[in-house]
Amino acid sequence: MNAKKMIALLLMVSTLLTMLIACNGGGQGGETTTPGSDASDLGTTTAAVTLPSEATSDQTVGDLQESAIKILAWQDAEMLEFEYEESATDQTSINDAILQRNDAVEKRLNCKLEFVYTPGNNSKQQDYLKKAESFANGDESDFIDMYASYSMTTALLSTKGLTHNLIPLQKENGLNFEHPWWPATMIAEAMFDNSLYVCTGDISTNLLWMMETMYFNKDLMKELQHDPDELYKLVKDGKWTLEKLYGYSKDVYVDTDTNGSKSAGDTYGYVVAWQGYFDDFYVGAGFKICERDSDGKINISEEWGGEAEDSFATAFMDFTKTDDFWYANSNAYSGPGVEAFSTGRALFTNNRSRQAKTFRETSECEYGILPMPKLNELQENYSTNLGFPYTLYAISNTSPSPENTALVLESMAAQSYTAVTPALFYDALQLRYSPEVDDANTFDILRETVCFDIGRIYCTPLNNYCYSIFRNACKSGSYSYANNVKNVKKVAGNLLATLINDLKKNELE
Q1: Torsion over CA of 49, 54, 56 and 59, rounded to 10 degrees?
Q2: Which residues, in sequence order, are CB contacts of 300 under 8 Å at separation 6+?
Q3: Is the four-CA dihedral 301, 303, 306, 311 of positive or negative sign?
């Protein structure tokens, strides 16, 4: 291990210890930030461990008299989130932190957390919905207080009148969306006429794992006569753009397997392993399909499919048609696309934060981590796409005590903030899975710039337009993206109007 990395790790451990002592009452609240933790001050020689601006702890007060709060959780969540799992021997610190969180909630509120598991991932949205409706209609022998499922799935429930408006459930020493464990951007984006039916934040471990990022091959960079630190400096200076990416990726292609054509065995400037990772370029460029007007009303964005998007899509399609680009059309976490990078035959690729663990264990090259590039230097901030397999939480409209459930929801989020996030974000992502200090800094940027988009949150009722049109154009290499958007824009507007009306079903009479 080089000296720079050793110093960084020691500083990180020191910061973690300080934070954990404070969380246990051994220090005063306030802001604790190590040098270089600000996204505008990357590239320093110290580790970027950014503690939230308010080191607040669980403020909930209540006695639920040993009552059970029943949570319908998706059993096919990709990463640990709900309970301690003995089989998860490779995630010991996170597993222990989840156990600590649940114990703390139960003791603080004198309640019992009961998780009821059912499938709920992308392909099982309707199965989860049917199960939730079965509980709501009294067809089961019990009831459900809280929903916790795949993002699209929980959002779908809220269009069926199954979820409680969370705003009226806020109270002193209870649910409070101004606390730092609830991302302000998420709450603002998911709000409809001062009503909020779904939420997420530190309460969802999968949210941090699903932040999507770019990985680059430092060894290949050096072979191409580039200093890898050039890229970190571009990020620091706000100049990491699509144009720069296209330039670095140019003239990298090599017919490594000598079969005379582009194939899985060749070397590329850029590899997209799976179709879902095309979304990262669109979101990274700052685009959304929905927008709010000056009164806060949600509309289909006038910019969707407009001149700026058309120009972006055309340039990206040009990039995908070069020899230097390869769409592997394979699995998100394994297969030819991922293998091309891990075996050193791709200069760049993009994947989720969870893939850092796999690359750390299996990559044959030294790699680095970057945010997705901006559209251009005029774009104010980097924008981080969030993969759909994170958890959205909601309170059931048929919970016998939504007020008590709201207390538990708040306590779970607060305890996750002080116990689980340090284990996952700081210890795992920034300490163990970040090869260098600059990569740890990147994870700070990702967390600070996660894009919550109402079009992605309510993806299913909006007919998947937030991703499907751009993805399809990328897969086919079509230049008709803007025209395809134009053809569905009126339909999308009607679907949005229907969505807004459907959400009103949640209001109890």
Answers
A1: -140
A2: 289, 290, 291, 489, 492, 493, 496
A3: negative
* Residue 66 backbone zone (phi > 0: left; psi -120 to 50: alpha; other: beta): left
Burial class (CB in 10 A: 0-12, 13-18, 19+), 65: exposed
Beta bridge partners of 270: 325, 348
Grade residue 38 by pLDDT with cuts at 50, 70 and 90: very low
Judge whether residue 128 has pLDDT over 90.
yes
CA dihedral over 211, 216, 217, 218, signed as positive or negative: negative
Q: Where are the beta strands (DSSP E) in 318-441?
A: 325-327, 346-352, 367-370, 391-395
Phi and psi at 485, nearest 5°, equal: -65, -45
Contact 368, 436 (CB under 8 A): yes
Terminal-to-terminal C-alpha distance of the chain = 64
Is pTM, for the whole model, over 0.85? yes
Euclidean distance between CA atoms 287 and 303, whole angstroms: 8
- What does the DSSP assignment read for 18-78? HHHHHHTTSS--S--B-TT-SGGGTT-SS---B--S-----------TTEEEEEEEETT-S
DSSP bridge pairs for 114: 70
> Among 126, 18, 137, 117, which Cα is nearest to 75's?
117
Residue of 55, 51, 6 lying closest to 29 (CA atoms): 55
Do residues 453 and 286 lie in contact, with contact meaning Cβ atoms separated by under 8 Å? no
Under a CB-based contact definition with an 8 Å cutoff, are residues 423 and 86 in contact? no
> Could you report the per-residue pLDDT of 243-267, keeping only the tens digit for each?
999 999 999 999 999 999 999 999 9
Tokens of 289: 């399909």
